[in-house]
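Inputs:
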Amino acid sequence: MRKFHLLVINEWVKMVKKRSFVVPYLILLLFPQLLGYIIHSVSPGSFASAAGFTREMLLPTGMGQVMTILSIIGTAGIVAKEHSRGTIKFLLIRARSRTAILASKYVTVLLYVLSLTAVAAAGILLSGMIWFQTGGGDTGIADILLALLYGCIYSFVYVTLAFMLGVLTHSTGVAIGLSMFLLTIDKMVISRSFYKYFLFPNLDLSVYGSGQQPPMPGMTLGFSIAVLAVYMTVFLLAGFLVFRRRDVA
Amino acid sequence: MERTSVNQLQSDAAGDLPVLQMKSVTKMIKGKAIVNQLSFEIRKGEIVGLLGPNGAGKTTAIRLMTGLIRMTEGDVLVHGHSIRHDFRQAIAHIGAIIENPEFYSHMSGLDNLKQYVRMSDGIAESRIAEVVELVGLQNAMDKKVKAYSLGMRQRLGIAQALLHSPKLLILDEPTNGLDPAGIREMREYMRKIAEVEGISILISSHMLGEIEQICHQAVVIQNGTLVKVTRLGAQDSTENEVSLSVRVDNLAAAAAVIQAEEGVRLTGTDEQHSELIISLHDRKVPELVASFSAAKVGLYRITEHKQSLEDDFLKWTGGNRIA
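Outputs:
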């Protein structure tokens, strides 16, 4: 495990060397500026402060969703492309276990999400400071960090899903397509009590924050965290078990 | 086949392990045996050809050796380490190109090699320069791999396989898609690698001529089953009997000369080309030529009569078409 970080460096280098690498970062920096401008010109009073704007934008209902989409696009191919390009053969005939290789890829995916989140936060904060008052309002740094955390968790669940799909299907298209499809329908609510055990209603943890009603009766923050943990574990287990055992043709 | 070189006997006595041991390896896919009870060995410094008609299981066998696919039964030992139970120890002794060498084409050759350096233990910095020089890619290291020709990619593949100084190099159809100059170049690399670095090489190929030219041993498989293991190359046969094909103007007169000559046997006649196939001791050849001229038999040409690997191959595999 001592040399695990070298595997992560490998994966990171492969991503950075892509010419399109900076595009999602640019989007996350520039898009909030445009958004801030539009909101400011339509209704200047909608956000009391830059902090309030930042908090609201980072949530899965705001830029958090864009961040997730970009994360999925950026990482869905991390396993599937090795198969389609044939580079998986050179990758797997090294003195490293398949578990370590896949784990290094997953860690890289998480790091990528974190880096996107950091850039998005910076972009949003900048936009907030340009278009809204820097002081005032009742949103503090703790609120912003919490929103950042919720946005990250939302993205983590989706990239983990896309990661598993990439391992199982060897297809970047299926991994991106299916997870994007789920992303677009995840706000849908089916009013049956069994639905609270599904992934979707539990994805946005920010609903528990401000004394709002939970999406469905009987749901709590702890419940949602537990459900998310179970789903993530299943996704990862499925991915790792299949990757370890599968014949590479 | 009976020739086992003295070196090998000595290394056996020293308790040297074979570099690769296939032990009744079987791979079943959907109830069908793709590779069936395949066993053979590769010793140090040996170049071995893996031959077989299309679909014989050559690539499957190589994927089994490198752990890319799991075997149903049997085991592969690389330098004594099982690829099943001790994968990382075993694979550390193998360098391989399986089918086409595929690289990250958006990265430079050097960046690609660095990837594999980070994935192996104890590779010195200088090793990259060493292997790059061996395959002659010094001037292309900073170019992106997508700008490489197939021959260059093949060479980068060899560099990649040699980085961690393996004991066994596995090359799957290494001359596939190369032009004649590239094929010749590849052959020279393989010789150099086997001689200079003392690495054993396993080459799978359908190019029988290739195998015949550089391999010490050929392993022939068909339908996943071992058909034959044969030694190739008559390089140490000067002390032995040679088989010659002699073209003459008069077959009957020539046959009479041969009969009169002691230690010369007539093994065949090819009337169409007016040729006789004879077997004799190497040092009898000048005497025989003298006898021919004394008997006024016109001699057009003398060539060594080799049964080509192709003939053997077709015999062993029952004339199955090779592509």
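Remarks. Residues 1-14 of chain B have pLDDT under 50 and may be disordered. The radius of gyration of chain B is 24 Å.
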